[in-house]
Design brief:
The protein has helices at 2-47, 54-70, 78-116, 122-139, 153-184, 197-212, 221-264. With 270 residues, the protein is mainly α.
């Protein structure tokens, strides 16, 4: 028992030492990072490249958070965690403000105030009900804070899922099925009697891809060769989709680099 106790004590001491060492390293990382940022901003302010004011402070903070977020490319570190928490907090606060001014004030409070100021009629009554009932259903979600009546929040989620599904399913069918079927139904010949090569390639790609996913027949002979052509069409489609995603991510990276070296450190003109 004494040997076991000795091992456990040594392990706990080593864990405490490693934790204290990590905290010391984190403080050093923060100190070095903010020292560099402060010196760089002081040089920019002194040279006139950066103007002091709310705009200048915003640029300095945005640059610091941008560098902190991109520091994750090296490894997970406290700078990235700090920037991540700030990003989530600011985004949440912005969403709350936007929701308050664009939804609650405009669509509920001001709308009810305008209806209340008008002479009462059945039309006004039903317009008020169209605002009050959805608002009450939305407020039921906060009953989750009271365990005894938390089941009422299911009404809110049921309405959200029901309306969301009702709106999403027709749009999804139209966008992912009907609109995708249209190109494969285009005429293969032009009005002048020539071959519509674009429609022919799409038609050929659809047929070969469907053959690849037809597993009731063994992929041998003509079926196998057709399925291999379908694989090529799939790879081209996946490659184009991945390339589009990479281009979108690179556009975000270029925008951030452009911000750092034009708005913060003016190395890029124009």
């Amino acid at each position: 028992m004494s040997a076991i106790d000795t091992d456990s004590n040594s392990n706990s001491n080593s864990d405490m030492n490693s934790n204290s060492h990590n905290k010391t390293n984190e403080w050093w990382i923060f100190a070095v990072f903010f020292s560099i940022i402060i010196i760089a901003n002081a040089i920019l302010l002194g040279s006139g490249s950066l103007k002091w004011g709310w705009s200048g402070v915003g640029i300095m903070m945005a640059a610091a958070f941008t560098i902190g977020l991109y520091s994750f490319l090296y490894q997970d570190n406290p700078l990235f965690k700090m920037a991540e928490h700030f990003y989530v907090g600011i985004a949440t606060a912005y969403l709350i403000i936007v929701t308050w001014y664009s939804v609650i004030l405009t669509d509920i409070i001001y709308a009810l105030r305008d209806l209340w100021s008008q002479p009462f009629s059945s039309t006004i009554f039903w317009q008020m009900m169209a605002i009050i009932l959805p608002t009450m259903i939305g407020l039921l979600v906060y009953t989750r804070l009271v365990p005894s009546i938390s089941w009422l929040s299911r009404i809110t989620f049921a309405v959200i899922i029901g309306f969301g599904s009702g709106l999403a399913i027709p749009n999804a069918i139209n966008a992912y099925i009907l609109e995708q079927l249209k190109p494969s139904m285009m005429p293969l010949w032009t009005s002048a009697g020539g071959i519509a090569w674009g429609a022919l390639v799409i038609f050929f790609g659809v047929i070969t891809t469907l053959v690849y996913f037809f597993f009731s027949l063994e992929h041998k002979g003509v079926i196998g060769k057709t399925a291999k052509i379908g694989i090529w069409f799939l790879m081209i489609s996946f490659g184009a989709s991945f390339g589009y995603t990479v281009m979108a991510r690179f556009s975000l990276l270029i925008e951030r680099i452009n911000f750092l070296f034009r708005d913060w450190i003016p190395l890029i003109n124009g």
